[in-house]
Amino acid sequence: MDRAPKQGKILVLGAGNFGTCLAGHLASEGWSVDIWARSESIVDSINNQHKNPKYLSTITLAPSLKAINHIEAAQINNYKAIVVAVPMQAVRETLAPFAQHLNTTPVLISAVKGIEISSGHFSAEVFADIFGKEIADKSVVLSGPSFAIEVAQKLPTAVVAASKDPKRAEETQAIFHSSFFRVYTSHDPIGLEVAGALKNVIAIAAGACAGLGLQMNSMAAVMTRGLSEMTHMAVKLGANPLTLQGLGGVGDLFLTCSSPKSRNYSLGFKLGQGMTIHEALSSLGSVAEGFTTAKAAHALAQKLNVEMPIADQVFKVLYDHKPVRTAFMDLITRDAKAEFSL
């Protein structure tokens, strides 16, 4: 049953799996929500049938949810919050029309997990490029172990809202928190962004591991050493290493590396079973952010001089057509070393 209306209007940019589930959640909690989509057929279906025909198509959305495919840039500051939920490589293009209009009134929330290939930037850095440092520093990262379908089904979920501005993190918490969607706050958006992006790359390796028929010892090694790689890059970028031990780090990593509900895990699994990258991508039906993130992470790791052997092998499998089994053999036969080093 829909809740009593709340004060303020929220805009969700992007009607993919996660954008749809977040918009549906907010609408069912009583917020007035506009969800923006490029596709007119998706807009018409949400408005008339209360279903997204392409993403989460089995879920009936709140009748109050309004879908739109045009936004007046001059009206952008009328929203209480703006949730960015488009693929990472589309963030800059989607937000560019608002560059001269957006001020610090709305809470700018990133639900994006990835690294922009052209710049090597995470979403907050892209926000800074477009809107300036003040708006970027007040932006919030919303991330954590949250399959869209489970959020849409109102199954218990816990995530993190992180911002350099504590008040904005608390505002986001207040907007999203519900009886089944628990939101914690954090002051480390950098760590949360790094974790959210890189866990998708490690999930491809975990899926490939399963696709090869390897067992739980191997899977545990991939996830644990993958977490180490994520932590190394996060710390290099100024993050608190404890963030990687939380919901947005180990929590999201475990979720994404252990279930076929994860598109990144599924991509790796298909590659491990012998599909070509083209075949695997074509069979997914939706975006696997880890594919593009692997390329951006590879370049960023080289720039920062951060050793990331698992991510490096994922990159070589995806972009250099290296056989998956050869990549795993190269990982397992690396020189012995100490486990911990930051």
Brief rundown of the structure:
The chain is α/β, with parallel strands linked by helices. Helix content is 49%, strand content 11%.
Report what the structure shows:
It contains 15 helices and 8 strands. With 342 residues, it is of the alpha/beta class. The chain has an 8-stranded mixed β-sheet, sandwiched between helices. Helix 2 links the parallel strand 2 and strand 3. It is globular and about 60 Å long.
Compile the SSE list and pairings.
Elements: E1 9-13, H1 17-28, E2 32-36, H2 40-49, E3 66-68, E4 81-84, H3 91-95, E5 107-110, H4 123-131, H5 133-137, E6 140-143, H6 148-152, E7 157-162, H7 166-176, E8 181-186, H8 189-211, H9 216-236, H10 247-257, H11 263-272, H12 277-284, H13 289-304, H14 309-319, H15 324-332
Parallel strand pairs: 1-2, 1-4, 2-3, 4-5, 5-6, 7-8
Antiparallel strand pairs: 6-7
Determine the mean pLDDT: 96
Order of helices and strands: EHEHEEHEHHEHEHEHHHHHHHH
The biggest sheet amounts to: 8 strands, mixed
Low-confidence region ranges = none
> Helical region count?
15
CATH class of the largest domain: Alpha Beta
CATH homologous superfamily of the largest domain - what is it? NAD(P)-binding Rossmann-like Domain
CATH architecture of the largest domain: 3-Layer(aba) Sandwich
The largest sheet has its strands arranged as: 3-2-1-4-5-6-7-8
The N- and C-terminal alpha carbons lie at a distance of 49 Å
Q: What percent of residues are in strands?
A: 5-15%
Query: Using only CA atoms, what is the Rg?
Result: 20 Å
Task: Name the structural class.
Answer: alpha/beta
* Domain tally: 2
CATH topology of the largest domain: Rossmann fold
Number of strands: 8
Oligomer: single chain
Tell the overall outline: globular
Helix residue percentage: 40-55%
